[in-house]
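Researcher: Sequence recovery benchmark, item below. Answer with residues only.
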């Protein structure tokens, strides 16, 4: 079956992935669900993706994709310079990405020359949304690093329960977070979650959807968190969050 750098060409040049076994790419890679639901396993962890949700993979990350019947996903390879912040970066549903991917699906490019404008457009969107507003770094300690990633996937999990699953004490985890990130665990997680919300907003998303993407129960909860951490009044954030946070 012929291929391009934007995906696998099937059915009158429609570009789509119908699912594939474990493999990896030398370039950064985006998995985007057009419709339906998909299950992606990457670096030994499983991610559930719904309609218009995307996940950004670094080069050489082993991954496998399974799409539920009736669903469809696109899998463009990206420019080598367009690297995610971590090996597997979930993006949620970002309107700006949806716009590019919908246009690409309709255009069905088949040559490298036709693919390149879409690849560049994806890079611009990803670079625009992925700048961290609140600087955070992952801990270096292997067990605490794994705990940190799990904490972002399960925002309701307590430090105590996470520490127990990783065979550490909460005090040990707190000490490593302070030593290696400069932040206590709770503030580190809050800042990382708010970065996910800001990414969504930069991509054209609304506050309610940004809150949901970042694991907040309500729009108001996200606004209060952003206000506490940034010092910007809630009223300004509610009116124009991206503008209030500096664009």
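Model:
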């Amino acid at each position: 079956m012929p291929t391009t750098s934007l995906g696998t060409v099937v059915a009158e040049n429609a570009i789509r992935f119908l699912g594939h076994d474990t493999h990896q790419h030398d370039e950064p890679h985006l998995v985007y669900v057009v419709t339906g639901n998909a299950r992606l396993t990457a670096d030994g962890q499983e991610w559930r993706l719904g309609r218009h949700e995307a996940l950004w993979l670094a080069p050489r990350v082993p991954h496998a994709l399974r799409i539920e019947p009736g669903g469809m996903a696109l899998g463009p390879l990206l420019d080598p310079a367009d690297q995610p912040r971590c090996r597997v970066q979930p993006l949620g549903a970002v309107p700006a990405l949806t716009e590019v991917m919908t246009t690409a699906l309709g255009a069905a490019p088949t040559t490298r020359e036709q693919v390149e404008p879409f690849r560049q457009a994806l890079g611009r969107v990803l670079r625009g949304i992925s700048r961290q507003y609140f600087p955070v770094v992952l801990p270096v300690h292997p067990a605490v690093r794994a705990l940190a990633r799990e904490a972002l996937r399960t925002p309701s999990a307590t430090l105590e329960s996470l520490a127990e699953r990783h065979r550490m004490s909460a005090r040990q985890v707190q000490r490593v977070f302070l030593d290696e990130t400069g932040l206590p665990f709770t503030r580190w997680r809050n800042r990382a979650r708010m970065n996910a919300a800001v990414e969504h907003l930069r991509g054209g998303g609304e506050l309610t959807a940004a809150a949901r993407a970042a694991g907040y129960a309500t729009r108001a909860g996200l606004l209060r968190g952003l206000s506490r951490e940034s010092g910007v009044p809630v009223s300004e954030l509610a009116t124009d969050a991206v503008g209030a946070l500096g664009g």
